[in-house]
Specification:
Layout lengths: L1 E4 L4 H27 L4 H23 L2 E6 L3 E6 L4 E4 L3 E6 L9 E7 L4 E7 L3 E7 L6 E5 L4 E4 L6 H10 L3
Parallel strand pairs: 8-10
Antiparallel strand pairs: 1-2, 2-3, 3-4, 5-9, 6-7, 7-8, 9-10
C-alpha cells in the first residue's frame, strides 16, 4: 500500500485561521452574554444555539478533511477522520491532473470552501458535478469513475496519477 500526504496550502491555512478566530470571538461574546444574563431564557437559547452551531461547523469541517490518500491492490482510499471513502480501482475510468484553466468558473454547490480544506460537491463547468476531497488549491487530481462520478483529490505527490493509471489498466 502506498500513502500520499494531503497537506494544506497557505490559502487553506489562512482561511482556517481567520474563520477559527472569528468563530472564537463570536463564541467568547456568546459565553460572556450567557454570564451577564443567565436567567433570561431567550438570551440563553440564542447564545447557546450560536455556540452549538459554530462548534458543529468547526468539528464537521475538521472531521471531513482528507488526512491522506492511499492506493492498494484494489482501492483508492481517501482517509478522513470521519471514516474512509473507498473508490474501487476497477471503477476508475481515468485519473489525471487538472490545470488551473480547467477549474475556472468552479462553484461550490454543497460543501466547504476552505475551512480545513475543500470538501463536498462542486460544479466545474468543463467537467460537471464533482466531489472534492481536497486540502489545497494545487496538485488537483481528477478521478473519473465508470459510473459517472467525478472526484478531486490533492495529494502532495502527484505521482499517484501514474500509480492509478498503472493499476487501472492492469488486469486484476
Amino acid at each position: 500500500m502506498m500513502e500520499y500526504k494531503a497537506s494544506c496550502d497557505v490559502t487553506t491555512l489562512l482561511i482556517t485561521g481567520v474563520v477559527s478566530l472569528l468563530f472564537a470571538l463570536i463564541i467568547f461574546n456568546s459565553v460572556r452574554a450567557l454570564i451577564v444574563a443567565p436567567r433570561h431564557i431567550v438570551n440563553t437559547l440564542i447564545h447557546s444555539l450560536i455556540i452549538l452551531v459554530l462548534f458543529v461547523l468547526l468539528a464537521a469541517s475538521y472531521l471531513g478533511t482528507a488526512r491522506y490518500y492511499s492506493v492498494d491492490a484494489t482501492n483508492l482510499t481517501i482517509c478522513r477522520y470521519t471514516g474512509n471513502e473507498k473508490i474501487k480501482l476497477s471503477d476508475i475510468q481515468s485519473a489525471r491532473t487538472l490545470s488551473a484553466g480547467e477549474m475556472e468558473g468552479t462553484v461550490r454547490t454543497n460543501g466547504n470552501g476552505g475551512l480545513f480544506g475543500y470538501t463536498g460537491q462542486f460544479f466545474i463547468p468543463k467537467i460537471g458535478s464533482t466531489t472534492f476531497y481536497a486540502t489545497q488549491r494545487r496538485n488537483r487530481v481528477l478521478i473519473t469513475a465508470k459510473y459517472g462520478r467525478n472526484f478531486v483529490i490533492t495529494p502532495d505527490d502527484t505521482t499517484i496519477v501514474d500509480k492509478l493509471k498503472r493499476k487501472v489498466t492492469a488486469p486484476l
